[in-house]
């Protein structure tokens, strides 16, 4: 019998580690209460898939995710991926900000070792809790030879997604996560791990995280009759970048567009995304006061676009005043 692969599970809390007073409750519970060791003990089948090592990186509700925890998690992922006998890393995470952390790891963990994120929509104490199967499937994917070199992956509800593409699209359903543009990469069914396609948007080298203070990058929505107050206030506060959650194909109300154009001329990076949830924001920009000054987020939603913009400006602050080069970052990642 061959030796089982060594898989490291890094836990950060979330609903998968949540508990409720009643097993009948799946909506009212306390996230991040169950330690990772208990999560693993609840899935005996894991012992037949891999030799597991667990580390409790954090124990938080992912709505409270922050830069310091991002940096700590990325450092632990990088550390374990550098160990020659580690076949894969699994990250348990809350669902609220999973897509943002997934984007961050996609950019900052360009390693051949499989890095697989997973989560749950129901707490561990719930009837029909989805966490145990998601965890088992994530370990199966991390241990699978075909998972190598595919970038950071997300495994939920028996589906395998690219971390760059996956988004949360429902408040409570177990099939809340989708990849709206390209669809999932594959699926897991019991012992079968099947990849149907490979992700094409993969970074060749890991992007460094800020060593000190992170740049101020915020999201500004466009809607019927917005004022320019928020944009002007953010520029005055020293914003390095702004992501617009625009309507439709990146359409921005004329009053907001004028404020954003002034921000861009002042050296603030302005990225147009869409609030619709799917689709690609066209290049060049639609006619508005900021034409030629704004960057398209492509098919990234505002939250993923913000994660990319944070790291891009941290790596090279000069990109804020160079929309052409910044556009290349979004086109390549």
What keywords describe this structure?
Asparaginase_C; Rossmann fold; 8 helices; 4-stranded parallel β-sheet; signal; alpha/beta; 8-stranded mixed β-sheet; 2 domains; hydrolase
Outline of the structure:
This protein is α/β, with parallel strands linked by helices. 26% of the residues lie in helices and 20% in strands.
User: Span from first to last CA?
Assistant: 41 Å
**CATH T-level fold name of the largest domain:** Rossmann fold
Sheet with the most strands, sense and barrel status: 8 strands, mixed
- CATH structural architecture of the largest domain: 3-Layer(aba) Sandwich
**Unreliable stretches covering 5 or more consecutive residues:** none
Task: Please tally the β strands and state the result.
Answer: 14
Class inferred from helices and paired strands: alpha/beta
What is the helix fraction of residues, given as a range?
25-40%
Number of domains: 2
Number of helices: 8
Strand content: 15-25%
One letter per element, helices H and strands E, the order comes to EHEHEHEHEEEEEEEHEHEEHH
* CATH homology-level superfamily of the largest domain: L-asparaginase, N-terminal domain
Please report the first level of CATH classification, the CATH class of the largest domain. Answer: Alpha Beta
Radius of gyration: 20 Å
Average pLDDT: 94
């Amino acid at each position: 019998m061959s030796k089982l692969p060594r898989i490291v599970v890094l836990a950060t809390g979330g609903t998968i580690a949540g508990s409720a007073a009643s097993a009948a409750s799946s909506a009212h519970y306390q996230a991040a209460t169950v330690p990772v060791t208990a999560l693993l003990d609840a899935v005996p089948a894991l012992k037949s898939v891999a030799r597991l090592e667990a580390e409790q990186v954090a124990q938080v509700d992912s709505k409270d995710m922050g830069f310091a925890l991002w940096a700590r998690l990325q450092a632990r992922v990088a550390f374990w991926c550098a160990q020659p006998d580690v076949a894969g890393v699994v990250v348990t995470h809350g669902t609220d900000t999973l897509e943002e952390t997934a984007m961050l790891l996609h950019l900052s963990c360009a390693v051949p070792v499989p890095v697989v994120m997973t989560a749950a929509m129901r707490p561990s104490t719930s009837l029909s809790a989805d966490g145990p199967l998601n965890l088992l499937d994530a370990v199966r994917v991390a241990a699978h030879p075909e998972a190598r070199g595919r970038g950071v992956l997300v495994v939920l509800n028996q589906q395998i997604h690219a971390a760059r593409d996956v988004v949360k699209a429902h408040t409570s359903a177990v099939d809340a996560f989708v990849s709206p543009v390209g669809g999932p990469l594959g699926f897991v069914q019991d012992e079968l791990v099947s990849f149907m396609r490979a992700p094409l948007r993969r970074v060749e080298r890991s992007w460094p995280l800020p060593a000190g203070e992170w740049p101020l990058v915020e999201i500004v929505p466009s809607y019927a009759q917005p004022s320019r107050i928020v944009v002007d206030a953010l520029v005055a506060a020293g914003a390095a970048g702004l992501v617009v959650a625009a309507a439709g194909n990146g359409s921005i109300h004329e009053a907001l567009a004028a404020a954003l154009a002034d921000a861009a001329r002042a050296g603030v990076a302005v990225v147009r995304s869409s609030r619709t949830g799917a689709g690609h924001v066209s290049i060049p920009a639609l006619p508005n006061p900021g034409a030629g000054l704004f960057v398209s987020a492509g098919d990234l939603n505002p939250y993923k676009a913000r994660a990319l913009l944070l790291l891009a400006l941290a790596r090279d602050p000069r990109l804020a005043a160079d929309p052409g080069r910044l556009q290349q970052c979004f086109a390549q990642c």
